[in-house]
Amino acid sequence: MARSLNKVQLIGNLTRDPELRYTPQGTAVCTFGVATNRSWVTDAGEKKEDTEFHRIVSWNKLAELCSQLLKKGRKVFVEGRLSTRSWTGQDGAQRTTTEIVISDMIILDSRRDSQKEETTEEATSKNAEPEETKSGPGEAPAEKVEENPKENSEDVNPDDIPF
């Protein structure tokens, strides 16, 4: 039997917030979009850019983690497989979609980077707590992260990260 391989690896930005649902059997499934860009220079010296949009699906615990940790705009690495499925739409037309069913996800930007995108109004509200200290009902308060002024003044080199 000949070997085959169905593997996808993407690095891109979320195009929308993840949407978490549960199957009738109680299995978690999360869907979100990722955009990837590529740029090139034509023979005539003209710079071109193209964006691809990908539908991402995660299942079980990974689905729950994606829904909790990801937000529109975050940069992620996802790894998984291509999956094509067909169904009949409400209008009776046959529909087909190709998705990437992921088995791994790594967040590539920092939480601090994603918080910079919050509106100034939210950040300066009198009663607003920093994101690190907020907790939902029945949850223990999250640890407050102290900001190191030196960290804010220089970028972190990925090669310096120990994992």
Can you describe what's shown?
This protein has 163 residues and is α+β, with helices and mostly antiparallel strands. The protein has a single domain (8-87, 94-137), classed as OB fold (Dihydrolipoamide Acetyltransferase, E2P) (Beta Barrel). 15% of the residues lie in helices and 40% in strands. The protein is built from 4 helices and 6 strands. The chain has helices at residues 60-69, 111-115, 120-124, 149-153; strands spanning 8-14, 19-22, 28-41, 47-59, 75-88, 94-107. Strands 1-3-4-6-5 form a 5-stranded mixed β-barrel. Strand 2 (19-22) and strand 3 form a beta hairpin. The radius of gyration is 20 Å and the shape is globular.
Distance N to C terminus? 38 Å
Spell out the CATH superfamily.
Nucleic acid-binding proteins
Task: Count helical runs.
Answer: 4
Main sheet, how many strands, which sense, barrel? 5 strands, mixed, barrel
Helix content: 10-25%
Structural class designation: alpha+beta
CATH architecture: Beta Barrel
Element-level helix/strand string: EEEEHEEHHH
The overall strand count is: 6
